């Protein structure tokens, strides 16, 4: 009897802790689907896509691989017959290596109007939850990685998945919570209180403020494996998209709490 009572009490305590924990961690979200790149190839993008490859990439007198171009193809299950989307295209990759092994090909963006074609990261709005893209796999034992750069310049690599399948597939990766997309900065009232040496322990309204610096998409990397042939292969990509939380925890009148904006407003008087 005592043992049952003890279990019941423990269960109640556990339930209370769980409820309080969830309540304390609650934060409003505003989730949006965001297309980073459509791969339509019709000049509607500020980016163009380039490739780089490891040392055993095939080079002939006429052609240097990999080849990258836009083709008249798309996943019909996502775009129907393509009529509503203006007959969308997809980005096609043709790769070829001289020997098997852990070869790689990078697919990365540059600005369309940059004559130097310098690699550039695509800024990601809000706090990203998931990234997905339609991929046409040629049933090869290859796999893809996706690279992100955070606000500190650190590059994070996530496994995007294997392309060992036939036809179009919507591939995706969830963004782990340990990839920090939030930075806590000192609010102006907190800075002033510290400067004056004031005790603010009993003033919860004076606290740090979160900011949401952008992650940047850097590139995809396609890896071949030693067990798979690499003499000639094709892979296609369509619509790079993210699910992101664009809620910045703003409040009505937040512009009046910005010291720079306040100075501009009062300078007009």
What does this structure look like?
- This protein has 269 residues and is an alpha+beta fold.
- It has a single domain, classed as Sandwich (Jelly Rolls), CATH 2.60.120.
- The chain has four helices and 14 strands.
- It has helices spanning 2-25, 76-79, 188-195, 259-267; strands spanning 31-37, 47-53, 67-71, 90-95, 104-111, 122-124, 127-138, 142-149, 155-162, 166-174, 183-185, 209-211, 215-224, 233-245.
- A hairpin with a 5-residue loop joins strand 8 (142-149) and strand 9.
- The radius of gyration is 25 Å and the shape is globular.
Summarize the structure.
This protein has 269 residues and is an alpha+beta fold.
Core attributes:
six-stranded antiparallel β-sheet, 4 helices, alpha+beta, 269 residues, Jelly Rolls
Which helices and strands occur, and which strands form pairs?
Blueprint: H1 2-25, E1 31-37, E2 47-53, E3 67-71, H2 76-79, E4 90-95, E5 104-111, E6 122-124, E7 127-138, E8 142-149, E9 155-162, E10 166-174, E11 183-185, H3 188-195, E12 209-211, E13 215-224, E14 233-245, H4 259-267
Antiparallel strand pairs: 1-14, 2-5, 3-4, 4-14, 5-13, 6-13, 7-10, 7-14, 8-9, 8-13, 11-12
Which segments are poorly predicted (pLDDT under 50) over 5 or more consecutive residues? 17-26
Helix content: 10-25%
Strand content: 35-45%
Over all CA atoms, what is the radius of gyration?
25 Å
């Amino acid at each position: 009897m005592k043992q049952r009572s003890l279990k019941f009490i423990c269960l109640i305590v556990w339930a209370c802790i769980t409820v309080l924990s969830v309540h304390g961690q609650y934060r409003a979200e505003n989730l949006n689907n965001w297309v980073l790149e459509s791969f339509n190839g019709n000049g509607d993008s500020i980016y163009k896509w380039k490739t780089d490859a490891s040392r055993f990439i095939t080079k002939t007198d006429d052609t240097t691989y990999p080849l990258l171009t836009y083709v008249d193809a798309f996943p019909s299950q996502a775009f129907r017959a393509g009529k509503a989307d203006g007959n969308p295209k997809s980005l096609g990759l043709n790769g070829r290596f001289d020997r098997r092994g852990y070869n790689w090909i990078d697919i990365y963006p540059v600005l369309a109007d940059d004559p130097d074609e310098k690699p550039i990261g695509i800024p990601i709005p809000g706090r990203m939850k998931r990234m997905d893209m339609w991929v046409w796999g040629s049933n090869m034992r290859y796999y893809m990685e996706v690279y992100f750069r955070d606000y500190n310049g650190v590059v994070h690599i996530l496994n995007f998945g294997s392309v060992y399948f036939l036809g179009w597939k919507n591939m995706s990766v969830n963004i782990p919570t340990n990839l920090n997309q939030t930075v806590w900065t000192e609010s102006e009232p907190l800075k002033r209180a510290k400067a004056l040496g004031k005790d603010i322990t009993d003033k919860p309204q004076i606290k740090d403020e979160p900011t949401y610096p952008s992650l940047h998409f850097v590139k995809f990397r396609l890896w071949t494996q030693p067990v798979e042939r690499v003499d000639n292969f094709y892979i296609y990509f369509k619509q790079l998209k993210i699910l992101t939380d664009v809620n910045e925890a703003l409040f009505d009148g937040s512009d009046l709490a910005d010291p720079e904006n306040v100075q501009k407003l009062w300078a007009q008087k």
